[in-house]
Specification:
By secondary structure, the protein is α+β, with helices and mostly antiparallel strands. The chain is 36% helix and 24% strand. Strand 3 and strand 4 form a beta hairpin. The termini are close together.
């Protein structure tokens, strides 16, 4: 499978927005992907996103769009370290592992 772009669904009011964009830029550069930012796109999140037990969707979420148009959820929220801080390295690791797994699939 070939990947086309990362899609970030976030909000300007989200305190982690800038960190998430920074992580996405690193991943997009490594995999030569476009980045698309959607602001508070609840319809997109309802259709493709991860939902909580009540059916609501959290912000932020990151998705991978494949060249065939398929959209796959790859991460919700930024991971937290044992010290309670945002862990950008872990976020990059999670995204890379999920992207590699998707790119290896034959669908």
């Amino acid at each position: 499978m070939k990947a086309k772009k990362l899609i970030i669904v976030s909000a300007d009011w989200d305190p982690l927005h800038k960190k998430l964009v920074k992580v996405a830029q690193k991943i997009s550069a490594e995999y030569n992907l476009e980045i698309e930012e959607l602001k508070e796109d609840w319809i997109f999140l309802t259709k493709y996103g991860e939902k909580d037990e009540l059916g609501g969707a959290d912000i932020p979420q990151i998705f991978l769009e494949l060249k065939n148009g398929k959209i796959i959820h790859i991460m919700t929220k930024m991971p937290i370290s044992e010290q309670g801080k945002i862990d950008e390295k872990k976020a990059i690791k999670i995204l890379k592992e999920k992207i590699e797994s998707i790119l290896r699939e034959k669908t």
